[in-house]
Amino acid sequence: MMTKFIFNTCGAQHGESHHAPDHCEICEDDRQYVGWEGQKWTTHEELAEHHEQRIEIEEDLLAIGIKPAFAIDQRAFLLPTDVGNILWESVSLVAQEAIDAINKCGGLDRIIISHPHFYSSMGVWSDAFGGVEILIHEADKQWVQRPHPSINFWSGDDLALSDSVTLIRAGGTWVKLEYFDRNHYAENETQLDTNTQPTFVEVLKRTLPEQEVLATEAEQLYEV
Ligand SMILES: [Zn+2]
After folding, report:
1. How many angstroms is it from 41 CA to the middle of ligand 1?
2. C-alpha to C-alpha distance for 209 and 164, rounded to whole angstroms
3. Segment 41-59 mean pLDDT
4. Secondary structure element (H or E) that encloses residue 160, with its range
5. Which residues are CB-neighbours of 125 under 8 A, at least 6 positions away?
6. Could you tell me if residue 62 is left (phi over 0), alpha (psi between -120 and 50 degrees) or otherwise beta?
7. For the segment 72-81, what is each residue's pLDDT rounded down to a tens digit?
């Protein structure tokens, strides 16, 4: 039977195959570690049997994770913007509970991924919302393990989705999002200096757990 295997270490769902792949390209990148238990594979169905969606509100944003923790304990955030609701990052499990929670917040318009460690089950997320666009920088194309018709690769150093939302290629395999909230700016004008715009960055830093091996890298790149 053809199966889309998910790798336990990074949580990335792979394209269809009869047998579990020999290795995960993302994890074989030498900046990533291979878990001490060696490489193990699961499927979305199997994951759903033993895990639940972890749904929280953090900084007024819907945060979606998996419990008990899976892979590198990634989380995704729903960002309400003037270009619609953006799912920033994704996780390996897509449960009905999370779909309902997102729909209660007005649905999903677009998925944006900052790094291959968040590709996880992005294709399943897109399908759950009628095939919404997934935006990934073209430089990271080689890391996509499950090609999906909704993936759009963007190029260049930045991509403005509106006057408020800009994607920035942050170096290495990272992309960051800059969010300029005009309402917030109007209310807080006096507190701002030229280099400090209200952004989602503080929140986005927390999409990786503090203790995670990539946290330092994320910390540097997401530094405000
Ligand atoms: Zn991997």
Report:
1. 10
2. 27
3. 93
4. strand 158-160
5. 76, 87, 90, 94, 108, 111
6. beta
7. 888 998 988 8
Q: How confident is the model at residue 202 (pLDDT cuts 50, 70, 90)?
A: very low
- Token couple for 16: 């269809």
- Ligand 1 centroid–CA 187 distance in Å is 43
- Residue 185 CA to ligand 1 centre (angstroms): 40
* 73 CA distance to ligand 1 middle (Å): 13
Are residues 221 and 176 in contact, defined by beta-carbon separation less than 8 angstroms? Answer: yes
Q: How far is the CA of 173 from the centre of ligand 1 (A)?
A: 14
CA of 181 to the centre of ligand 1 (A): 35
- Prediction pTM value: 0.81
* Spacing, Cα 212 to ligand 1 middle (Å): 15
Q: Give the model confidence (pLDDT) of 104-114 as tens digits.
A: 999 999 999 88
Residue 49 phi, psi dihedral angles, 5° rounding: -75, -30
- Tallying the residues shown for the chain, one arrives at 224
How far is the centre of ligand 1, averaged over its atoms, from the C-alpha of 9 (Å)? 6
What is the spatial distance between Cα 32 and Cα 214, in angstroms, rounded to a whole number?
A: 8
What is the CA(75)–ligand 1 centre distance, in A? 16
Cα 113 to Cα 14, 80, 102, 126, 194, distances in angstroms: 16, 16, 17, 12, 28
What domains are there in the chain, each with its CATH number?
3-221 (3.60.15)
Q: Cα(44) to centroid of ligand 1, in Å? A: 15
Mean pLDDT (the chain) is 79
